[in-house]
Amino acid sequence: MLAGEDYRASDPQLQAEQHRIRHLLARLNAMLCPYDACYRAQYEALLAEAFPNAHPSLFIQPPFFCDYGYNLHCEENVFFNFNCTVLDVAPVHIGRNAFIAPGVQIYTAGHDLGHLKRNSGVEYGRAVAIGRDCWIGGSAVICPGVTIGDRCVVAAGAVVTRDVPDDSLVGGNPARIIRKLDR
Q1: Which pLDDT tens digits describe the chain residue by residue (183 residues)?
Q2: Is the peptide bond before 63 cis (omega within 30 degrees of 0)?
Q3: DSSP for 37-101?
Q4: How far apart are CA 54 and CA 124, in angstroms?
Q5: Longest dimension (CA), the chain
Q6: Which range marks the domain in which residue 88 is found?
Q7: Which candidate, 102, 83, 96, places its Cα nearest to that of 140?
Q8: How far apart are CA 75 and CA 56, in angstroms?
Q9: Which of 42, 108, 117, 145 suits 95 as a labelling partner, its CA being 20 to 30 A distant?
Q10: pTM higher than 0.70 for the full model?
Q11: Is residue 1 one of the residues assigned to a domain?
Q12: CA pair distance 89, 94, nearest whole angstrom
């Protein structure tokens, strides 16, 4: 799965790992005010356990959903707003100072276009990368295998199906470059 090869989500080891993260996310998502001082230590410990490959400055506004947690690699000052979903069957790399708006969905999981293979339960994963200093607008969807360059803005509601070069504003479905951004 991590190498980009076909896998089955029903594999017992993968199901055990999904069970683990779901219990951690249930605790995270039950926190009403994780930024309050009285919850801060508990919140930080929970994030460190759930997302061991993320910088300690990661901030997630619950609710949040993902498949494994350990495939989420975040540099410093990454912020996820309410109700984001990351299907992290393959690595998701997010650069420093990235803002992820409410309702954003990041997918690394995919299914074959052919119905016979798709119906067999076989899936695939393709890594996603979001560069430094990016802003992903509300309800945007990032599809498997996409790389978004540094200093990009993805407009609200965009569906990003292909790579985005540095310093770009993209929007639409499928997302297209609207203009280059000043550095």
Answers
A1: 888 889 998 999 999 999 999 999 999 999 878 778 888 899 999 999 999 999 999 999 999 999 999 999 999 999 999 999 999 999 999 999 999 999 999 999 999 999 999 899 899 999 999 999 999 999 999 999 999 999 999 999 999 999 999 999 999 999 999 999 998
A2: yes
A3: HHHHHHHHHHHHHH-TTB-TT-EE-S-EEES-STTEEE-TT-EE-SSEEEE-SS-EEE-TT-EE-
A4: 23
A5: 53
A6: 7-180
A7: 102
A8: 9
A9: 42
A10: yes
A11: no
A12: 15
Q: Which residues pair with 125 in a beta bridge?
A: 109
Q: Which residue is associated with the tokens 């994030």?
A: 47
CATH number of the domain that residue 107 is part of: 2.160.10.10
**CA 159 vs CA 16, 98, 162: distances in Å:** 31, 18, 9
In a domain, 2, yes or no: no
CA dihedral 167, 172, 178, 182 (to 10 degrees): -30
Q: How many domains does the chain have?
A: 1
3-class secondary-structure state, position 32? coil
Determine the Cα–Cα distance for residues 82 and 74; give it in Å rounded to an integer: 17
- Fill in the amino acid letter for 13: Q
- Among the listed residues 19, 23, 93, 111, the single catalytic one is 111
Task: Show the CA angle centred on residue 87, arms to residues 49 and 62, nearest 5°.
Answer: 55
111 is catalytic: yes
40 in a structural domain: yes
Q: Which residues pair with 176 in a beta bridge?
A: 171
Residue 145 resides in a domain: yes
